[in-house]
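Q: I'm teaching a short session on how sequence maps to structure, and I want students to see two examples side by side rather than one. Could you give me a first protein with its sequence written out and its structure tokens following it? Keep the formatting plain so it prints cleanly on a handout.
A: Of course. Example one:
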Amino acid sequence: MSTQPLPLEGITVVAVEQAVSAPFATRQLADLGARVVKVERVDGGDFARAYDTAARGLASHFVWCNRGKESVALDLKDPRGLDVLRRLIADADVFVQNLAQGAAARLGLDAATLCAAHPRLVAVDISGYGAHGPYAHKRAYDMLVQCEAGLVSVTGTPERPVKAGVPAADIAAAMYAFSGVLAALVRRDTTGRGGPVEISMLEALAEWLGHPLHHVMHGGTEPARTGVAHAVIAPYDAYDTADGGQVLLSVQNDREWRRLAELVLGRPELADDPDFATNAARVAHRTRTDESVAGALAGFTAAEAVARLEAAGIACARINTVADVAAHPQLAARDRWREVESPVGPLRALLPPITLGGSQEAYMGAVPALGEHTCATLRALGMTDEQLAELRRDGVIA
């Protein structure tokens, strides 16, 4: 059986991007076969390049979000650099930018302006709070938006709110930008026209707040912060094990509670005790419920606890470290790891989670060095070596 090409082969994306939201969106497009030209500043490039040096000297954020792209370094404050960018956009299918609010419009790079000039172009504006409104020009780093969107208010312990451990606002915006581009390209196939796509980090993350937001809006109370415990189900929490691990278990109904009491806790009398026999009773006596479970699991290693819970038909999971995830047996069994080339050599990376049956495997190209593709890209635009040398001498390209 013949293998189908990746779905975005033949699509060219130009991105003036930095940090996470736009780069993560365009990396999804690159994984699906699009050519992504990443336009960076000549003086250091995407500032995410300097976040850390954890990936063998490269920044972990940058490695994560920028594989499979071509790096072109331009000074967009110089008219010659801006002209090069405009020529790239004229030949592109998609343009993505997440510059500071107002910066793209000042350069004529906002989606509305570009789509008016190039009707087939899909142009994406990613911002913190949207193009208008009282927060339009407010700084919008990920953690700030997590706070404004209310995510921090529902994450953490009763004593203290806690941010998500990943840049949730950036990722939410990136994934809506990714799906927005795909939708606009499908529409272009029907109508012949691309069009603007606007993504706000606040709006993306507010959508992800769905259940608590609807609960509160329609008459409910503000949700309590409960750590990893469930607010209305017990037992549904993480418990320490004898070897220093933690295992989370979830009892969804009273039949499961009976099995837990009999087969794991070794206390069959709890199955019919009116203080524990129903979920409502267990929630009302949550402290005692948790003490019963914690006391039993403390006598097992994490592996023993998981084995006993699974044998009893109780949903459970170990609370893994990030290092545990990197060695997760399920990811290994499904052959999800690949190596990606980079300026410092091969780096381990996960296959993207979209698996297209019958298609070529996702394109996981190299992580580019700053300006690695500048000369080749500009030569393809018709520039001579003499012109390139002049632009490099004047600091317009790198």
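Q: Perfect. Now a second example for contrast.
A: Example two:
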Amino acid sequence: MSDASGPAIARIWRGRVPATRADEYEAYLFEHGIKPLIEKAMGVQSLREDRPGETEFVTISYWESVEAMARFAGSDPRRIHHLERDPEFLIELPKDVQILQIRFAHGRTGGALA
């Protein structure tokens, strides 16, 4: 059901940091994780949820195919490529990412930077 000209695949990464380091990690994540995705993916979203004591970040990148994603992420697109300072920031290093087929999208699903 995905539009032929739009993305067919979403790759979702999640990571949690102590709330006291959330702003610092967000800037680091954008500079070293999001910017390279912007250059390769069809689209990228960065989401943040502040909770008591911790903050969760979710990065969703959109791809035309698994093959296109593999050209960026390597032969196993579920494999995590941790950023150099992730062990310093993250409460727990994620073990994998989610790869989902986009079956339907409607309306304005993106957002501007806050």
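Q: What should students look for in example two?
A: Point them to this: The chain has three helices and four strands. Also worth mentioning: The two ends are 31 Å apart (CA to CA).
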